[in-house]
Amino acid sequence: MEFAATEAPRDEQATAVCEMKPAVEVIDSDLQDVVLEVVRRERLYRFGRFATSDTDVSLAWVSVGPLLNHEPMLSSVVKKMSVWLGRQIGGAESDQAANALLLGVDCWGAVLASQLSVVSGVPNFCVAARARGEHSVPQEGIDERLLGSIAGRHWVVIVSDVIATGRSLAFVRERIAAKVPIDSVRWLALSIICDRENKRVVECEFIERIGTVCGELRMPVLAKDRLPDEGILPPEISFR
User: Fold this and answer.
1) For 62, which of 93, 156, 161, 198 is 20 to 30 Å away at the CA?
2) Which residue segments constitute the domains of the chain, with CATH numbers given?
3) What CA–CA distance (Å, rounded) separates 74 from 13?
């Protein structure tokens, strides 16, 4: 299977933008179709109980590793993300590198951000956010080097594999805001999957726009107290 190498016209590649804040924009409709087909054919979508925080439960799970390992998915995702990012932050590549910073959240976010950094020239850091960073190594923390790099940046872009509730986005900003002033920073987010129909359960209006590869895959999320006790319905995966 081959992916189109040319950039689609904006009115074709940017499908309808969700009115809920932050707005969610599919960065390339053709690539979204490929993602949906791979997920369907390879049976990468699972339905069950997946504990992603102390308060919320995802009812769906997508195996991101096998998805990105489907040649040439990773390179196509990075390329389309780079095109979208360039449109959002504008200016020459040298200006983009000086004015923006990528923050790759958790494992696959870090992979995507590092690859996107190579393509775009925008510097990047990896940040652990799952379980509020409890399972991280020091290099994934909000350290002085990262904070110093934010100084003077106009844009900060959070990159992750799946955006469900928005808690990871809010956690990253919360940790940074507790240590340095960021009133002048503008925030964007990039993801592989972000269900456009999901209302983010936490305050994420600081994110101006989410660019996602796939916004049409339903990823339902429920409050933990809407489900039976875990003794009756144990989670298949827990990151708490």
Assistant:
1) 156
2) 17-41+76-219 (3.40.50.2020)
3) 18
